[in-house]
Amino acid sequence: MKFILKAAAAGSLFALAACGDNSAADNVEAAAENQADALEMQAENLSEAADDMTGNAAMAMENQADALDAAADNATGATEDSLEAQAEALREGGEAKEEAIDDADVNADAMTNAQKESVVNGM
Length: 123
Hints:
Elements: H1 2-19, H2 22-73, H3 77-103, H4 113-121
């Protein structure tokens, strides 16, 4: 991604360099580098946010399952079996949510330039 943006900036730089005005070429190159840096930072922030959501969702489900296990420890017979089954189902649901969040994690390299610009510009 950064390579493509730098290549585009270099192309602009060469075109402007042919005109003999290096300050404009420097400005184009700096703008392209700034945009590339902003896109990389946005992708990193989105990835970290997804990781945080994954951890929080998994922790909440695990805490609920632990509470059911504790209740099952104080129960007997069918009630104990039912509570243990509920705890297991809850853990499996938490794992499924965690996987879904991981699968939805943003892959900035797979985004089009228009998508990247809309993320950076908040559109």
